[in-house]
Amino acid sequence: ISRVNQPDAIGVRTGDVNRNTVQVFTPGYVPRAFFVYKQKLDDQGRPFSLAGNTNADLLQTFEDLNGDGVIDTKDRYRTQQAAPKFILGLTSNLTSGNAYLNFTLRSFIGNYAYNNVSAGLNNYANTFTSNGNYFSNTTPLLGNEVNFVGRQAFSSYYVQDASFVRMENITVGYNFPKLGGTDGRNLGLSFSVQNAFTLSPYKGLDPEVVDGLDNNFYPRARTFNVGLSLGF
Q: 26: how many CB neighbours lie within 10 A of its CB?
């Protein structure tokens, strides 16, 4: 087996969303590095997004990283990673008298996600159907934060910080003193929530997506349970 040094090799492209590959495996870089164009931002962190598909428009929108005056695949760069740098967890069981509180917290830190939902919806070309008879879905970001004319699937704007803290479950309960004296019945009440809340800067529906690709993701349900126990 021979090894060939190819410093200009891009690597193995992956991360397929709508027939666009937005990630790459390259030796010397983090696995599944996002491989996109570097988005120009204004002073408020919003993308310069008047881009159509002409080179002049693209030069106003993306950084010409190799300085050749043309925005093409040579200007795509590797940025951020899908996997978290740190995974944290905390489980606690607290009791005070007959009352108790149990909870489980989880956290990912340093992971990023490609927001394909936003990439697909937030452009003016998407707002009209092919026959122009009615509007299609978009998000409040269009017109307020982005003004893309057409879909810009390779914009680094859609590679977003997906670090999070999630309250996986929390339960509060109370065990009443025995009914009818020491030989009486035991009565307990409890209330629990699964997927209680998630704190994250991510702009999509859920920051915890497979391989960092927010694409066709079914949202996690938040469930509530009330428990009643009676012991004899």
A: 15
Check whether 127 has a pLDDT greater than 90: no
Range 34-39 average pLDDT: 95
Predicted model pTM? 0.84
Beta bridge partners of 96: 99
How far apart are the C-alpha atoms of 232 and 227, rounded to whole Å? Answer: 17
How does residue 2 score in pLDDT terms, banded at 50, 70 and 90? very low
| Rg of the chain, C-alpha, whole Å | 25
Mean pLDDT of the chain: 86
Q: Are strands 77-79 and 33-36 parallel, antiparallel or unpaired?
A: antiparallel
In this structure, the strands spanning 20-25 and 33-36 are antiparallel
Other Cβ atoms closer than 10 A to 135: 10
Q: Where are the strands (E) in the chain, listed by range?
A: 12-17, 20-25, 33-36, 77-79, 86-96, 99-109, 112-115, 159-161, 164-179, 185-199, 213-214, 223-231
Segment holding 58, helix H or strand E: helix 55-61
Rounded CA-CA distance 35/76 in Å is 6
The SS3 of residue 81 is coil
Instruction: Give the pair of three-digit tokens for residue 153.
Output: 């699937």
Q: Please compute the mean of the pLDDT values over residues 151-166 and round it to a whole number.
A: 94
